[in-house]
Amino acid sequence: MKARTLMRSGAAFAICILLAAGLVAQVPQPGQDKGTSVSKVERKNKAPVSKEILHVKLPRPVEVTLDNGLTVMIMEDNKFPTVSVQLWVNGAGGLFEPSDLPGLASATAVLIREGTTTRTSRQIAEEIDNVGATLSANTGFSALTTNVNASGLSDNLDDWFTLMVDVVMNPTFPADEVEKYKARQKVQLKQQRSQPQFLATERFNKAVYGNHPASVVAPTEASIDALTSEKLAAWHNERYVPQGSILGIAGDVKAQELLPKLRRWFSAWKRTDLKVSLPPNPSAQKTKMIHLVDRPNSVQTTLSLGNIAIDRLSPDYVPVVVMNRIIGGGPAARLFINLREEKGYTYGVYSSFTAVRFPGPWSASGNFRTEVTDGAMTELLAEIKRIREERVPESELDEAKRAMVASFALSLEQPTQLLNYALQRKLYDLPKDYWDKYPAELMTVKAEDVMRVAQTYLNPDAMQVVAVGDASKIKPVLEKYGPVQLYNTEGKLMQN
Q1: pLDDT 10s digits, 425-483
Q2: Predicted local distance difference test score (pLDDT) of residue 495
């Protein structure tokens, strides 16, 4: 109870921080005149940082490891009669797919609920509807895990939970469902190639990851054709294993009553000899390159630029979080204010970074009118240069840190987010008090830390730049910034 009271008071204070700092007012409204710079909203910068927010203690889940190696984390919250479940199957993510079968992991995740040894696809759908539950599974092409998600009411938990267990443990991958899935995927593949954002993501991942498996972002027509019930079943049998996987449960449950049921429900899920090993880490590219995807008659240029930065366990993680927030982590950040509000080049431009078990990229991206491609490139690089070479003013740094602390405090109101924090901590082997100390860690980041990580990971001389647009109009512009490699929308390298 004391922890919940602390979280509620912290969240309420966080809202005060947001309002007092003027951060809510900085979000552009639909139809707003682009000539009006919301960055000119007066900011008092007088909201203090609450000591309570800096010293939170998150509720700990009940944590038990079953005999088969499955870690169970239960977060009791009895305010509402609902329960949410997340099963992270470690080693079943797209990162581990055979190189000739991209899309195998995601196909398996989607199709596990399309039939089991005791239920047809229709029966599964009807049972889920009848108990008012949800059930889904997904993974990404560079993901470590496949995530199975379920939710429903606590009074019929046994019904929908055992259905989820059946789907995870006993899928049959009916041939007719596999064929329907393949037909849908082929249509989606064609649609993706018409989308500039997909083309930019595909080329950017190839540019920064090189030959690393994380460079893959979509299946191929050949890999879709190669999918069979037998291959899906083989992948499932090999990769859907309990050891190293994590089952998270949050909501209206009592751990001591639920644990005996979990032991019974998962008793047939046997430990195997599979050990999850990662491919060699990707490393940052050493020289700048412009990767141009020619999309004739496009009225805009989609730009992405960046390079490999850090992994989740890097000691620079928190400073990079703060640095990213300042340069492009939202509508109050420098990129948005400069290129959207002041220059009017775009409706939105942001930066982000990926940090998992292996190093991922920092990147900045946005869509710009074709005629301002040169100006957009100039300003993107100027902001990177500024954060590398100029000390961040204390007022700007303090505002960014307070906003992040406020956002973190607000997230503590959500039991599912608290569970997610616990699952992340377990997956990455973070200290048990990691999230308790996180707000204070944010507040300790100094201007020199921001400059140091910017200089380390945002090297303009090695930046990989991806542009998707009309090459006849933007290629001469881009050649001013470095050597250009030209690709078509099928991803094939073209003659310059």
Answers
A1: 999 999 999 999 999 999 999 999 999 999 999 999 999 999 999 999 999 999 999 99
A2: 76
b/e code 76-87 from CB counts within 10 Å (16+ = b)? bbeeeebbbbbb
Question: Maximum Cα–Cα distance for the chain, whole Å?
Answer: 68
> Any alpha helices (H) in 45-146, and if so which ranges?
51-54, 104-111, 121-130
pLDDT at 4 over 70: no
Strands across the sheet with 62-65, in order? 62-65, 71-76, 246-251, 82-90, 145-153, 134-138
Average pLDDT for residues 35-62, to the nearest whole number? 57
Q: Are strands 464-469 and 289-294 parallel, antiparallel or unpaired?
A: parallel
| Per-residue tokens: 116 | 């089991």
- 211 phi, psi to nearest 5 deg: -90, 0
> Cα torsion at 469, 472, 476, 478 (round to 10°)?
10
- Buried b / exposed e along 208-243 (16+ C-beta atoms within 10 A): bbeebbbbbbbbeeebbebbebebbeebbeebbbbb
What is the side-by-side order of every strand in the sheet holding 349-355?
A: 349-355, 359-369, 300-308, 464-469, 289-294, 484-487
The residue with tokens 């140091």 is 452
Single out the residue of 161, 159, 158 nearest to residue 148, CA to CA. Answer: 161
